[in-house]
Automatic annotation (TrEMBL):
Residues 1-20 form the signal peptide. Coiled coil: none annotated. The keyword Transmembrane helix does not apply. Keywords: Hydrolase, Nuclease, Signal. This is Endonuclease YhcR N-terminal domain-containing protein. Residues 26-128 form the Endonuclease YhcR N-terminal domain. The keyword Hydrolase applies. Residues 127-147 are annotated as: Disordered. It comes from the Bacteria. Pfam families: DUF6359, Endonuclease_1.
Length: 369
C-alpha cells in the first residue's frame, strides 16, 4: 500500500494541487471575479481604507493595515473595490495613515486572491509597486496644488483654500459663453452642451435669450450678494452653467431645498415659493459649486462675503441655503466623471484654479461640520 501511495503521489494523484498563479496583471474587476486563492498581480487606484465589509473611509485613516483598490480613482461603490491586506513590511510605504497622499494613485500589488474583511480581496501581499500616476479618465487631485492646505481643518482649511483658489484668471461675461461650450461639452457629442438642471443635450450654437435657447445660469444667484455680472463672482465659471432659458427663469434666485412641485422641461426638478431642487444626478454638483463660492469669495476683494446658511428667502443678503440640505446632497451625489472633467478643463483652459470640493469632497464636513 505504501508503494502504491508513493506511485500515486509521483503521478500527481491523491494530492490537492495549489491554485495556479495568474501570470498577467489583473484589473480590479478581474481580481474580484478570480477569488480562487491563487497568486495574482493586480493594478488599480487607491480609493481608501476598508474598515468593514461594506465600509471604506477616504480620510482620517485609523491605521496602516489595509487599502482598497478600484479601476477608477473616483469609484465610490465598495462592490467594485478590492480590499488589500498590507503586511507589516509594507505598511510604512503603503499604509494610508502614514501615506494619505496615495489616495488616487495607481499601484500594483502581488498576493493571494482571497477574501479580506469577508469581501473580495488580496491577502499576504509579497510585492507593492507604484504610487505615481493618476487615472487618465479622472484628473484627480494635483497634490502640489493643495500643499498649502495639507494637515489643516475647519477655519484654517477654509482660509488656506481661499488663498489657493483665489489665484485665478478672471473672465469677462462675454467670455463665459465660449468657456461653457468647452467646460460643459457633451462627452458623446462635441457639438452640444449638457444643460445643468434639465440634463438635455443641446447644440452649442443655440445659446441666447429666446425660448428653448440656453443661457448662463448663476448657481449662486447673483442677487444673493448683489454682485451682478461684473468680473469676479458674476463671471466665475465654477458656478456658471448652461441651462434652458425657461428653466433658468423658474429657478430665478431661489435658495436650494428639498420638495416642491414639478418643473416643466426639467424632469426630477422641484420648485415652490422659496426654493428649488435640481434633479438628483446634479444635486451634489450644485452643492459643491455653492461651497466653492463660499470659500473663494470672502469679502476681501471688493465683493460680498458669500456664505451658505440654514435659511431660504435670503433675498439680496450674501447668503444661500439650506446648508444642511446642500451637505446631504454633496454626500449623496459624489463627483462623477463629467464634474471632474469640467473642473480640469476650467483649470487647464480658462481660470487656472480648481474647485477643491470636487477633488476633496471630504473637506465639506471639515469646514461645515
Amino acid at each position: 500500500m505504501l508503494l502504491i501511495g508513493v506511485l500515486l503521489a509521483l503521478l500527481g494523484f491523491g494530492t490537492t494541487p495549489a491554485p495556479a498563479a495568474t501570470s498577467a496583471t489583473l484589473t480590479v474587476a478581474a481580481a474580484i471575479q478570480q477569488q480562487t486563492g491563487a497568486t495574482g498581480t493586480v493594478s488599480g487606484y487607491v480609493v481608501g481604507q476598508p474598515t468593514a465589509t461594506n465600509t471604506v473611509v477616504r480620510s482620517n485613516f485609523p491605521n496602516d493595515y489595509a487599502l482598497a483598490l478600484a479601476d477608477s480613482a473616483g469609484q465610490t461603490s465598495t462592490a467594485s473595490m478590492l480590499y488589500v491586506q498590507i503586511p507589516s513590511g509594507f505598511r510604512s510605504a503603503y499604509g494610508l495613515r502614514s501615506n494619505p497622499s496615495l489616495v488616487g494613485q495607481q499601484i500594483t500589488v502581488t498576493g493571494k486572491l482571497a477574501a479580506y474583511f469577508s469581501h473580495p480581496g488580496l491577502t499576504g501581499a509579497t510585492a507593492f509597486s507604484g504610487g505615481g500616476g493618476s487615472d487618465p479618465g479622472d484628473p484627480g487631485d494635483p497634490s502640489d496644488y493643495y500643499a498649502g492646505a495639507e494637515g489643516k481643518t475647519g477655519a484654517a482649511l477654509k482660509s488656506a483654500l481661499h488663498t489657493i483658489i483665489s489665484n485665478q484668471t478672471k473672465l469677462s461675461y462675454d467670455q463665459v459663453w465660449n468657456a461653457l461650450k468647452d467646460t460643459d461639452q457633451d462627452p458623446n457629442n462635441a457639438n452640444n452642451v449638457i444643460l445643468l438642471y434639465s440634463g438635455r443635450s443641446q447644440a452649442k450654437s443655440t445659446n441666447g435669450g429666446d425660448p428653448n435657447d440656453w443661457n448662463r445660469e448663476h448657481v449662486w444667484a447673483k442677487s444673493h450678494g448683489d454682485f451682478g455680472t461684473a468680473t469676479g463672482p458674476g463671471t466665475d465659471v465654477h458656478h456658471l452653467r448652461p441651462e434652458d432659458v425657461s428653466v433658468n427663469g423658474i429657478r430665478g434666485n431661489l435658495d436650494f431645498d428639498n420638495g416642491g412641485g414639478t418643473v416643466a422641461e426639467c424632469s426630477g426638478c422641484a420648485v415652490d415659493g422659496d426654493s428649488f431642487s435640481p434633479r438628483a444626478a446634479v444635486r451634489g454638483d450644485v452643492a459643491r459649486m455653492i461651497f466653492y463660492m463660499a470659500v473663494r469669495y470672502e469679502g476681501g476683494d471688493g465683493f460680498a462675503n458669500l456664505e451658505p446658511n440654514e435659511s431660504v428667502n435670503n433675498g439680496t443678503a450674501p447668503y444661500i441655503g439650506k446648508l444642511s440640505v446642500l451637505k446631504a446632497w454633496s454626500q449623496a451625489d459624489p463627483p462623477d466623471a463629467f464634474e471632474k472633467r469640467r473642473n480640469q478643463v476650467i483649470y487647464d483652459n480658462w481660470q487656472h484654479n480648481r474647485n477643491p470640493f470636487i477633488d476633496h469632497p471630504e473637506w465639506v464636513a471639515s469646514i461645515w461640520p
